[in-house]
UniProtKB/TrEMBL annotation:
PANTHER family: REVERSE TRANSCRIPTASE DOMAIN-CONTAINING PROTEIN, REVERSE TRANSCRIPTASE-LIKE PROTEIN WITH RNA-DIRECTED DNA POLYMERASE DOMAIN. It comes from the Eukaryota. InterPro entries: RT_dom. This is Reverse transcriptase domain-containing protein.
Length: 251
């Protein structure tokens, strides 16, 4: 994989930001190829085919997909086929990469819905299996299984309804697990249990992401962290600033 990454990164094709080559993103054996043109993408794919053939490996074309991101509200039509090992890749509008749902319009509503459903399953499982446990045990389980909100720090473009649906479910999951009344104060119950509310959890996730990106030695992450106009980092710093709107909150 290191040889393949070096071969791809040494090419002058694909996406470049601030002079940094971002034509491939890799985690273990999962790889994403990025290019602003089909010609560039074909060249990157050819390098992958040659490198794989040289090591006696063959890519699983059925698990490989092609996605064309929209420029604003527009998306190219009548796209030429992208061949991988002489097989045309399926063009999709949505793909799950490392557990995170990516869409061609850069929206995060689909991934928020994925996490909302996953949180609902975890919350109901805890409430059902640990109903006879003490409050302390239930609170510990909630903190361990319901506050992770996988990849939530990457959400930067979503509608208010999707975000509120997840917040309401987060609050209701806590009520169900602890056996609290449905319309009790959300801020009060979290304060009494000394547990982070939804907004506090999101702020911690975003602060952790910003800290790790800016401290990383990876050249791509370092480039992102050094950009003051980075939309993701700006969102993490601006969107999740706490605002006091009253003495108590009811959800």
């Amino acid at each position: 994989m290191n040889d393949l990454i070096d071969a791809l990164s040494s090419q002058r094709v694909g996406c470049h930001i601030d002079g940094v080559c971002v034509n491939n993103l890799s985690y273990a054996d999962d790889m994403v190829l990025l290019s602003a043109s089909f010609c560039g993408l074909r060249k990157l794919i050819c390098i992958c085919e040659e490198c794989g053939g040289g090591h006696g490996l063959k890519y699983n074309v059925k698990k490989s997909k092609c996605m064309v991101f929209k420029a604003g509200t527009k998306c190219p039509q009548d796209l030429p086929p992208v061949l991988f090992n002489s097989v045309p890749l399926e063009v999709v509008n949505q793909f799950k990469y490392l557990g995170h749902l990516i869409t061609n319009d850069f929206k995060d509503n689909a991934d928020i819905e994925r996490e909302r459903r996953a949180l609902s399953i975890r919350g109901n499982m805890i409430a059902r299996r640990f109903a006879r446990c003490s409050q302390e045990v239930k609170i510990t389980l909630f903190r361990a299984y319901c506050t992770s909100l996988y990849t939530s720090s990457l959400w930067a473009d979503y509608n208010k309804r999707s975000y509120n649906d997840l917040r309401i479910l987060y609050n209701n999951a806590f009520r169900v697990i602890l056996g609290l009344p449905r319309f009790c104060s959300a801020s009060g119950m979290f304060a009494e249990a000394r547990t982070a509310c939804f907004h506090a959890t999101m702020r911690k996730r975003c602060a952790s992401l910003v800290r790790r990106v800016r401290a990383s030695s990876n050249i791509i992450l370092k480039m992102i962290g050094d950009r003051l106009d980075c939309p993701l980092l700006r969102h993490c710093c601006d969107r999740h600033v706490p605002v006091i709107v009253g003495a108590r909150e009811y959800y």
